[in-house]
Amino acid sequence: MLMLLSLAACGGGDDGGNSTADADDPNTLKVVQPDDPGVFQPGNNDDQDFNRLMRQMYETLFYMDENGEVQPWLATGYEWEDDTHFKVTLRDDVKFSDGSDFTAEDVIWTITYAIESALPNSHYNLVDAAECSVVDDYTCIIGLKQPCMTFAAHLCLPECGIASKAAFEAGNGDYLGASAIGTGPYKLDSYTQGDIIKMSANEYYWREGEPKTPNLEIRIVSADTTRATEARALSSDIVISPNTREFESIDATDGIHMEYGVTANTVYLLLNTAKAPMDNVKVREAFARAINVEATVQLAYGDFGSPASGIVCPAILGYDAEAYQTYYGAGHDVEGAKALLAEGGYPDGIDLEITVDNADSQRCDMAEAMQAQVLEAGINLSVNKMESAPMREYLAQGSHQMCIYGFTALTMEADGMLSQIQPGSSALARIGYDNQAFFDKYNEGAATEDREARGEIWKECLNMLMEDYTMIPLWHKSIGAAVKDNLEGFFWAKDYEEIYFQYIEKT
Amino acid sequence: MALALLATIVFLFTLMEFVPGDPALVVLGEGATEENIAAIHKELGLDDPYLVRLGRYLGDLLQGDMGTSYKTRQPIAPAFFSRLPLSMIIAFWGVLVGTILGVLAGIISAVKQYSIFDRVLTVISLFGASAPSFWLAMMFVLIFSVKLGWLPATGSYSFKHWILPVVTIGLQCSASITRMTRSSMLEVIRQDYIRTARAKGQTEIRVIISHALRNAFIPILTQIGSNINGYLGGTVLVESVFAIPGIGNYVLDGVKTMDTPVVLSGIVFICLMCSFVTFFIDMAYAFIDPRIKATYGFGVKKKKKAAVATAKTTEGGEG
Known about the structure:
The complex is a heterodimer. By secondary structure, chain A is of the alpha+beta class. Chain A has helices spanning 2-10, 48-57, 104-116, 151-154, 165-171, 224-232, 247-251, 281-290, 293-301, 321-328, 334-343, 361-375, 388-396, 415-418, 436-446, 451-467; strands spanning 28-33, 62-64, 70-72, 75-82, 85-90, 133-136, 139-143, 186-192, 196-201, 215-220, 238-240, 256-271, 306-307, 350-357, 379-386, 402-408, 471-484, 487-488, 505-506. In chain A, strands 1, 8, 9, 10, 11, 12, 13, 14, 15, 16 and 17 form an eleven-stranded mixed β-sheet that branches. In chain A, strands 4-5-7-6 form a four-stranded antiparallel β-sheet, covered by helices on one side. In chain A, strands 2-3 form a two-stranded antiparallel ribbon. In chain A, strand 6 (133-136) and strand 7 (139-143) form a beta hairpin. Chain A is globular, with a radius of gyration of 24 Å. In chain B, helix 9 (192-199) crosses helix 10 (204-233). Chain B is built from 15 helices and no strands. The longest helix of chain B is centred in the N-terminal third of the chain and has 36 residues, at 76-111. Chains A and B meet through helix 1, helix 6 and helix 13 of A and helix 2, helix 3, helix 5, helix 7 and helix 8 of B.
């Protein structure tokens, strides 16, 4: 201890080469987030942390405003040439961070390259690369395999950020260096894997006066308790997703507070309708009655987020609280569950198994809470905790009976979730749902241009899922970030839990 | 050493074969389509037979190619070597601090056996051995960063950033060295040659340092070597608490994401470094203990040369 104190006293500010800016430096925004991007190529990953970084370097054709409606960003507008050809006109005053012009060729190249390289950007699964074409420097046509009237909303997501074709060729695809060129407010200065990303203002940025803070430093801190400590030590300006149990202590710290955001993500109990005995609808309904959703959510998340009130979040087109009440309104009904089990051919009770990711402590807590709740109804539930990677394969093969999993309605319409459980998607095996009427109804909705009419079709699709008890919504997710009191311009954007750092300045 | 490394590689590669999970699903995420999964399998060569993939991996490794990460599709070597120095700094400085503290505490405990010093130091070393490193680390962060604000909570950017992680590892490491030094010293200080040294009028410090500690140092050195080896790749928890991007976390992330090339290359390199550390520790034995030096043959040539020179001088004298 004595040695530690002496060392602390002797330690000067002799930063090494990989130094960080002082916490009070007004020209540098210091951010801490959980995951490392690994590479700076738009579409190379589908998680929020990766995309939050991509958004600072690469921009999308459209964005979602505070109401969740699609607005132009790099584009000036769009129109449907026919059901499957989406024509986009682009701004003519945009330049990449290397000073070269942004053109329609870059848009089409970014999309076709992602498809040909099988990048994990699921939004381009809809695109028919052969039908994409450049009309002129600032106009292009994106061809789709099938109608999708919410396609513009897909293009709002940072996975669909536009990269420079010329930089790709010049840098030979080095997305840690020369090829990592976009039109975003920041450009990449340096990257130490697993540690820190340094960015500075793009001098060619087309939006005047932005970014408001010229330098951006993003540190990777994977442990959520460590992120909470970092917030309480006031070493960073923004700390994303600190440990939920420490929100109160962060709020109680002078100089920093929590900022919460509502997301489009709902966590579900997915019931595999293709796997016995869950192929029996009575068993599925009995399970829905046997659990206590509110108590389960309270145990796992406390007051953070909210227990499900619909099969998608309230802000999503297709949300229907009444339909939710019809199917799940009975709540925790032990006698009803017993009767349903008896009707289903299990009067003496049943053994079931739930699969959860053992890295997600809240989902493990939920599974264990359910395990205790359903026992009363005669259901002996075992909890199968698995590592993330083997679990993905286990679920993709449909080997599970039920699992806890989240879906995000990325387009702010129910199709953002529904599209993930359509034929051809590995996520469909999680509910093992084989209902042609459901798939047809989804396709009908996707081809409907009128938003209101589309909303009604989404409700019908969601009703089918509820009627068949394929998925039980549990929790509407929230997100939180610790933000220093002297920051202005922070908000959680609608599109995939993003933050637009370009609007933030220190006062 | 080469044979042991080869066996390790083949064993690890085979072990990874039995780990359930499809890397393509991890790479592609939630929106994976069957078409894309097939494309990734082809790109990564996952459909090739086991022996073909093993041969390819060994061939690449022989040419110095550590492979490409499944997750990022970028070469592993730059990422690995940017993290390696951090892990080495933690391991070596931590063990150095632990050795200094441990040897000092062990000597005091042995020399003052059953005294209050011995008992207090034994309790401290037992605490160091039993306290989990992540708990110790969290406590230090809460006290010195959050409460007092003297040291940075996380990161690895300056001397100040290194103090808490090095002291955390040092304290834990010192526990085993204290116990080893104490028991080894107790054995040595009862020997006749120690009594002889004292009888010759040498100071107590000289007796302890030059005669007792030197003879007791072989097992301590073995303990130091095994600590360095352990901390080279095994400081994952400390790396997590202090957000230090070392190789422990890199390999652990590889395990979580089924990134087989990252796991294999990481462990193989850690094995290689451990082999070198063990080799240098073995060499160090010879410099501490003349008997071991003699078995290696060090100094034999010198003696022979000296003998020849003496003989020549004698011959010359006669002439």
